[in-house]
Design brief:
With 211 residues, the protein is an alpha/beta fold. The chain is 34% helix and 13% strand. 21% of the residues are buried.
Length: 211
């Protein structure tokens, strides 16, 4: 049976990356809204006789309750349920902050997945999650395909070419002055030359039960 993971993410793009790479590893992902009451969701699943997710992946930005307080309550009501906290807006997590999270009941605390080093951070984060789900090793070909698709989504479309600058019309030509020839004023012949014959050729329920 495929492992199941329930997650919330404060940053949409982080959620998309997590969902894509977990799905590539045959992990069923339940992506809940950030403001949902997860304790109520878990209670409803138990009441409906559904199996609880194998792991919770929760962002620090969850709004209904403090994530660390959630860890304490969840561990007392659902002992043994792994809870990984993510900080989708922080590039780094200090060792002191990680120790604090573990002390309050989190299984781990992970920083944001960095798109500038997508493959490296994705593999590192995914390895930790699959380790907790007992689902290693990573299916590398499937992961690379999902990351490649994500990378293509971040390539900006080329900007349309700029309009060429307006060109001011040339100033009107001054009338030609008469030329003198042996004391008699004449005008230069400005008639067009006859056209040659060639000129004319230019022409985008959960396991069958509701909860």
């Amino acid at each position: 049976m495929k492992p199941t993971l329930l997650m919330t993410q404060a940053v949409q793009r982080q959620g998309e990356i997590w969902h894509s790479m977990l799905s590539s590893q045959n992990v069923t992902v339940i992506w809940e809204e950030l403001d949902c009451d997860l304790l109520e969701v878990l209670d409803r699943m138990v009441t409906a006789g559904l199996t609880l997710p194998n792991l919770l992946l929760l962002d620090l930005g969850m709004t209904v309750t403090n994530p660390y307080r959630f860890c304490q309550v969840a561990q007392s009501r659902f002992p043994g349920l792994p809870i990984v906290i993510t900080s989708g807006q922080d590039r780094q997590i200090s060792s002191a902050e990680r120790r604090w999270a573990l002390r309050l009941g989190a299984t781990d605390l992970l920083p944001a997945i960095q798109e500038s080093t997508l493959i490296a951070t994705a593999v590192s984060h995914l390895t930790r999650i699959l380790e907790l789900l007992d689902a290693l090793p990573i299916q590398q070909d499937a992961l690379m395909a999902s990351l490649s698709a994500l990378s293509r989504e971040t390539v900006p479309e080329p900007a349309p070419p700029a309009d060429p600058p307006a060109v001011a019309p040339p100033p009107p030509s001054s009338p030609q002055s008469p030329q003198q020839y042996r004391g008699v004023g004449t005008v230069a012949d400005t008639g067009s030359l006859p056209k040659s014959d060639d000129d004319g050729q230019r022409r985008r329920r959960y396991r069958g039960s509701s909860y």
